[in-house]
Amino acid sequence: MLLSRLMSEADYGGLRQLTSLGRIALPLLLLGLPQALIYFVPKDRENGKRYLRVATVLYTGAIVCFALLCLVFSGQIAAYYNNSGMAGALLYIVPWVWALGLLMICMNALLGLEKPMLAGAISALHAIVFIVGVVSV
Fold first, then answer.
1. pTM of the entire structure?
2. pLDDT exceeds cutoff 90 at 118
3. Largest CB tally within 10 Å, which of 4, 37, 47, 115?
C-alpha cells in the first residue's frame, strides 16, 4: 500500500511485474529445501549446520541458473509482459529472489531448531530492507 502511494502508476506496475516473475520462479528454485530442513534438522541436530550449508549451496546454484536464463531471455520475457523497460531491470530481481529464498531456508532451519523468535526477527529485518531498497530506487 505504501509503495503504491510513493511510486508512479507505471513504476509500481513494473515493480509488480518483476516481483510476480520472482514469486513464480521462487517455489521452483527452492527445490523443496525449506520443507526438507523442517523434516531433517529436528531429527539430526548434530548435522543441522551441514544441512543448512548444503541447502544454501544448492539454492545458490539454482539462482545462478535463473540469472543466466533471465539474461538470455530478457527480451522475450519483456515482450511477454509487454513492458520494454523490464528487459533492463530483470537482473535486479535476481538478488531479491535469492534473498527471499535464503530467508525461507534459514527460517525453516531455525524453526527446525525450535528458535521461532529469531526466525521472526530475521523475517522483519528482511521486510524493512526490502521496503527501504524499493523506496530508495
1. 0.80
2. no
3. 37
